[in-house]
TrEMBL record:
<feature type="region of interest" description="Disordered">
    <location>
        <begin position="137"/>
        <end position="170"/>
    </location>
</feature>
<dbReference type="InterPro" id="IPR000195">
    <property type="entry name" value="Rab-GAP-TBC_dom"/>
</dbReference>
<dbReference type="GO" id="GO:0031267">
    <property type="term" value="F:small GTPase binding"/>
</dbReference>
<dbReference type="GO" id="GO:0005096">
    <property type="term" value="F:GTPase activator activity"/>
</dbReference>
<feature type="region of interest" description="Disordered">
    <location>
        <begin position="1"/>
        <end position="29"/>
    </location>
</feature>
<dbReference type="Pfam" id="PF00566">
    <property type="entry name" value="RabGAP-TBC"/>
</dbReference>
<feature type="compositionally biased region" description="Pro residues">
    <location>
        <begin position="149"/>
        <end position="166"/>
    </location>
</feature>
<protein>
    <submittedName>
        <fullName>Rab-GTPase-TBC domain-containing protein</fullName>
    </submittedName>
</protein>
<feature type="region of interest" description="Disordered">
    <location>
        <begin position="62"/>
        <end position="83"/>
    </location>
</feature>
<feature type="domain" description="Rab-GAP TBC">
    <location>
        <begin position="213"/>
        <end position="422"/>
    </location>
</feature>
<dbReference type="InterPro" id="IPR035969">
    <property type="entry name" value="Rab-GAP_TBC_sf"/>
</dbReference>
<feature type="compositionally biased region" description="Low complexity">
    <location>
        <begin position="137"/>
        <end position="146"/>
    </location>
</feature>
<dbReference type="InterPro" id="IPR050302">
    <property type="entry name" value="Rab_GAP_TBC_domain"/>
</dbReference>
<feature type="compositionally biased region" description="Polar residues">
    <location>
        <begin position="1"/>
        <end position="20"/>
    </location>
</feature>
């Protein structure tokens, strides 16, 4: 029995504890990781949410007496959850914002997104005369060397991340959503298991209310509802026969929740990498602060099980920010289920985003470039002439679904729309960012460095409602949505014919 096992056994007052056993051909270090998280699930850790905690896997607990004592004292006990908060812990909680963040995080460059450029809708102009693809060899260098004008105007920068914008209409919206959402399924004891939309609520009303803002209190239920509705409509792809209704989707969710628990007992070749990524996935949040605290353990378990869901995708680092955002609202089995649905359903297509080579990422970038070419041809020309490839700045947007590029409150509202509308939301949001900084990109004195630096920033909308309203109008444009579908089909042909390598900036 390991030192950790002995400590847990003494705290749980038992001579034997039921923990994972090494599986055939399982890497010893990977088993150590999986075993550590399983043991700490039994007793927790002290100071969860308030202290940094003790590292046990990336560098195993040292052999010195002091290291052993620190590790043993960091394990939780039966009185941990019952004790009163001390003065320091209360002070920490008082610093939290409405979403549980006590730090704004560190960002190299904070830039405000003005609302004025979003006052006008996005319109498709005449067919582009600019040839798609990168500029001819040497052309970009020449364009950057001949500035031919004054320096580009400086974007409105911020010294620090402002607090979440006040939700002034939260109370009346709570009442409306409370009338719209009703119990969908109950357990044998009559307790509510899941929620649904009241029969007779038009899709247009639901869409309008989602874009105006889902109340925080209803967000967890709404996310499950939206995914269930989208999967019911779009299916799961890959030859899946589809669903006859939302109750069949609900049954599949219960099946996947059971699969999640089963996968926890299996070995994953990605466990060591997942363990390395867990503590650095979402910084500054009380749920994920403490090493091996409940939040970090939940994140590890979800990513462990999800890494076994698809042999092609396995695990990639971009899965962490998505899973952690879901965990702030939903329990781990439900998060696993939603990730599986988002992975397989054509409505979200995360499989293509995470498969080797990131084909979904390249498709999204191709679509974004076509939007710029047909709706903002001067921006497209400037990026092309300066040699600013879209992959250089937009890769992190799509891989993390903007989690690392926007304030958390904005991320939540955009995610509301994504779960409702599907993957087109991301290319439209990317177009919004580019549109907002139009004058900085096309300025005569703009250079490769100035443009790339700007588009690699952390963006803070000056008016969140204006951004969401612009996205709603743009995504309601049936002509544009049809063009997006056609561009996705065109990209598939380019890939099949081997012409995709020269189709992007």
């Amino acid at each position: 029995m390991t030192n950790l096992s002995q400590s847990v056994a003494s705290l749980t007052h038992t001579n034997s504890i039921n923990t994972p056993q090494p599986l055939p051909n399982e890497d010893p270090d990977a088993f150590h990781v999986r075993h550590t998280y399983a043991l700490l699930d039994l007793c927790g850790v002290k100071g969860d949410g308030f202290v940094e905690g003790v590292e046990r896997t990336r560098a195993r607990v040292g052999n010195s007496r002091s290291s052993q004592l620190d590790a043993a004292q960091a394990i939780g006990d039966s009185g941990e959850k019952r004790k009163e908060l001390d003065e320091k812990e209360r002070a920490v909680l008082e610093r939290l914002d409405r979403y549980g963040f006590y730090e704004s995080g560190s960002h190299d460059r904070l830039v405000s997104m003005p609302a004025a450029p979003l006052a006008q809708p996005l319109k498709m102009v005449a067919p582009a005369t600019i040839e798609a693809g990168p500029a001819p060899s040497g052309f970009a260098a020449a364009a950057n060397s001949s500035r031919g004008g004054p320096p580009p105007p400086l974007p409105p920068s911020l010294s620090s991340l402002p607090p979440p914008q006040p939700l002034t209409k939260e109370v009346p919206r709570l009442e409306k959503w409370g009338r719209m959402i009703i119990p969908f399924t109950r357990d044998q004891g009559g307790n509510i298991e899941s929620w649904g939309i009241r029969e007779g609520v038009p899709d247009k009303k639901l869409r309008r209310r989602v874009y105006k803002g889902v109340p925080d209190r209803w967000r967890s239920a709404t996310w499950v509802i939206l995914v269930r509705r989208a999967v019911c409509k779009a299916g799961l792809g890959g030859g899946h026969p589809g669903f006859g209704g939302e109750r069949q989707v609900e049954a599949e969710m219960k099946r996947l929740q059971a699969v999640y628990t089963e996968k926890l007992e299996e070995a994953s070749s990605y466990d060591i990498q997942i363990d390395l990524d867990v503590p650095r996935t979402i910084g500054g949040h009380v749920m994920f602060k403490t090493r091996y605290g409940l939040g970090q353990r939940s994140l590890f378990h979800v990513l462990h099980s999800f890494s076994l869901y698809c042999d092609t995708c396995g695990y990639v680092q971009g899965m962490g920010p998505i899973a952690s955002t879901l965990l702030l609202h939903l329990p781990p089995p439900t998060v696993y289920t939603l990730l599986c649905f988002m992975h397989s359903s054509p409505a979200y297509s995360l499989h293509s985003m995470f498969a080797p080579g990131f084909p979904g990422l390249l498709e999204a970038i191709y679509v974004q470039e076509r939007i710029m070419q047909t709706c903002m041809p001067d921006v497209y020309a400037a990026l092309r002439d300066k040699g600013v490839g879209t992959t250089a700045y937009a890769t992190k947007w799509y891989i993390t679904l903007f989690v690392t590029s926007l304030p958390f409150q904005t991320v939540l509202r955009v995610w509301d729309c994504w779960l409702l509308e599907g993957r087109d939301v991301w290319v439209v949001l990317a177009a919004a960012v580019v549109r907002v900084f139009h004058e900085h990109i096309v300025a005569p004195g703009a250079t490769f460095e100035s443009i790339l630096s700007l588009l690699s920033s952390f963006f803070v909308p000056a008016d969140e409602d204006a951004l969401l309203a612009w996205m709603a109008r743009t995504l309601a444009d049936t002509k544009l949505r049809q063009s997006i579908a056609e561009w996705r089909a065109t990209w598939a042909v380019l890939v099949k014919e081997g012409k995709d390598a020269t189709a992007l900036l």
